[in-house]
Amino acid sequence: MLICLLKRVGQLLGFAATAAALTMSTPVYSASDTLRVATEGTYPPWSFKDSSGNLQGFDVDIANALCAQLKMKCQIVAQAWDGIIPGLQANRYDAIVASMSTTPARRKQVLFTNKYKETTSSFIVAKDSGIKDVTPVGLKGKRIGVQRGSSQHQWLTANGYEKTATLVLYDSTRQPELDLVAGRVDAVIGNKATFYADFFKRPESKDFTFVGPEFKGGVLGEGNAIAVRLDDSDLCNRLNTALDAIIKNGTYDQIRKKYFPFPLM
């Protein structure tokens, strides 16, 4: 009888310790807290640094609007894309606001809020390239530029492009565009809205064009959302409430119109 009682006490103490550990590992946020946000930082017009080195862009404005709605201070840092999820998991920041596509693979690593914009991907080629077919067969022998670790990179691999073409990988979205203009790659693939609002606003883009259909869904994701740690459902819920509020009160649309003349969702 005494042995059973001691075992039961031990179980209860174990449950209490586990609950305490869970409570300690999951932060509870208040209005006076600072929300630490990571964005990519080299991805205009979504996030980029101005001439003074300050972070600007659609995602930066959205992050600041959400912090204002939550009445929290906002601390936004730039993080290279291939390390952005590991940085979140390592608790270097609390949320990622970086136009991240909600892919099945990423859902295993992070908890996503509701989406805050749709996304489609497209190829760009030189107008005189003769490229019309952007299937793996149509791009056989070509060099395709894409950001390393992006959903477009995953999509190219999933659809067998590396078997027929050469995938040239870059650490930012601007680098493949520069190499396309310089003739070092034959095509690039990326976010269509980004191309529209950035690449096609530059003088050097006049000899280039979209080609082929728009792509979305699957490994390209079902829109873009904010990522938090898997165990941080409290922050996810608070961000969803704040996101809903800035959409309803017109703040979201004011930010969108600053960068795009068309809806994002």
UniProtKB/TrEMBL annotation:
InterPro entries: SBP_3_CS (IPR018313), Solute-binding_3/MltF_N (IPR001638). Pfam families: SBP_bac_3. GO terms for cellular component: cell envelope. It is found in: Cell envelope. This is ABC amino acid transporter, periplasmic ligand binding protein. Residues 1-30 form the signal peptide. Residues 34-263 form the Solute-binding protein family 3/N-terminal domain. Keywords: Signal. PANTHER family: ARGININE-BINDING EXTRACELLULAR PROTEIN ARTP, MEMBRANE-BOUND LYTIC MUREIN TRANSGLYCOSYLASE F. Belongs to the bacterial solute-binding protein 3 family.
